[in-house]
């Protein structure tokens, strides 16, 4: 029996795009999509085992070996810097990490800039490269409200269409980096299951 490759899939909107990507690559995902109560799905013929995880947890499963491979946004890789291999840009789930603020924002360099974000690492590295002194305000939800309530001067957040920013009278001040979904691999798994993992990678690459 061929060794099973355990794949950590991100829940949510990205997960739907990932499922479509796997189906195109020849890995049936119908059961995975339709049965929302089941946690783990196996296909011995294809040699894969899938399970759903919160997007920000996928790298933990992969880094610690509970999953051999996983699909994760580049934003999460940049923020948490897990010790994994990044083998492929799947070119789905495309977004960008941006600095946004109220339309009348003026950056007074004489003052410490207050930055609301859940991307502390990305924000710190970005402003460090500019030599800008900042005060990080960590938030996990509704970040757009921070400048409106004068909690922060700017936000650093992921932007897909920009609709939410526009609805809250915020504008993009600067784009930090483009992000998309990446195929990551546990380093030990890659040594022992290199052939199987590369087969999956090539399928995703050639038919995606």
Going by CATH, the homologous superfamily of the largest domain would be: Periplasmic binding protein-like II
- Kindly report how far apart the N and C termini lie: 27 Å
CATH architecture level-2 label of the largest domain:
3-Layer(aba) Sandwich
What is the string of helix and strand elements? EHHEEHEHEEEHEHEHEEHH
Number of domains: 2
User: What top-tier CATH class of the largest domain fits best?
Assistant: Alpha Beta
Strand content: 25-35%
Q: Provide the residue-averaged pLDDT.
A: 92
Can you give the helix content as a percent range? 25-40%
Low-confidence stretches: none
Classify the secondary structure makeup into a structural class.
alpha/beta
Q: Write down the CATH topology of the largest domain.
A: D-Maltodextrin-Binding Protein, domain 2
C-alpha-based Rg, rounded: 19 Å
Number of strands: 11
Q: Can you summarize the main beta sheet?
A: 6 strands, mixed
* Individual helix count: 9
User: Quick one: overall form?
Assistant: elongated
Q: What order do the strands of the largest sheet run in, or round the barrel if closed?
A: 2-3-1-4-11-5
Quick structural overview:
The protein is an alpha/beta fold and 208 residues long. It is 34% helix and 31% strand.
Characteristic terms for this protein:
D-Maltodextrin-Binding Protein, domain 2; single chain; 31% strand; alpha/beta; 208 residues; 6-stranded mixed β-sheet; 11 strands
Please provide a written account of the structure.
The chain is an alpha/beta fold and 208 residues long. Helix content is 34%, strand content 31%. It is built from nine helices and eleven strands. It has helices spanning 13-24, 30-34, 58-63, 74-80, 120-130, 145-148, 163-167, 187-192, 194-207; strands at 5-10, 40-43, 48-53, 69-73, 85-89, 95-102, 113-117, 134-138, 154-159, 170-179, 181-185. It has a six-stranded mixed β-sheet with strand order 2-3-1-4-11-5. It has a five-stranded mixed β-sheet with strand order 8-7-9-6-10. β2 (40-43) and β3 form a beta hairpin.
């Amino acid at each position: 029996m061929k060794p099973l490759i355990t794949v950590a899939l991100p829940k949510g909107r990205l997960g739907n795009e990932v499922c479509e990507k796997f189906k195109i690559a020849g890995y049936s995902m119908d059961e995975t999509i339709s049965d929302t109560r089941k946690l783990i799905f196996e296909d011995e013929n294809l040699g894969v085992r899938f399970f759903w995880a919160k997007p920000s947890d996928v790298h933990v499963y992969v880094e610690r070996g509970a999953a051999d491979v996983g699909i994760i946004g580049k934003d999460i890789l940049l923020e948490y810097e897990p010790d994994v291999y990044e083998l492929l840009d799947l070119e789905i789930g495309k977004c960008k990490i941006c600095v946004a603020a109220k339309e009348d924002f003026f950056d007074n360099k004489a003052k410490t800039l207050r930055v609301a974000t859940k991307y502390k690492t990305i924000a710190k590295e970005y402003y460090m490269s500019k030599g800008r002194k900042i005060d990080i305000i960590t938030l996990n939800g509704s970040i757009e409200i921070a400048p409106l309530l004068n909690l922060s001067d700017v936000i650093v957040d992921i932007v897909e269409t920009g609709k939410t920013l526009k609805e809250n009278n915020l504008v993009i001040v600067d784009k930090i980096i483009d992000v998309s979904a990446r195929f990551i691999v546990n380093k030990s798994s890659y040594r022992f299951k290199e052939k199987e993992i590369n087969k999956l990678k090539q399928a995703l690459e050639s038919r995606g």
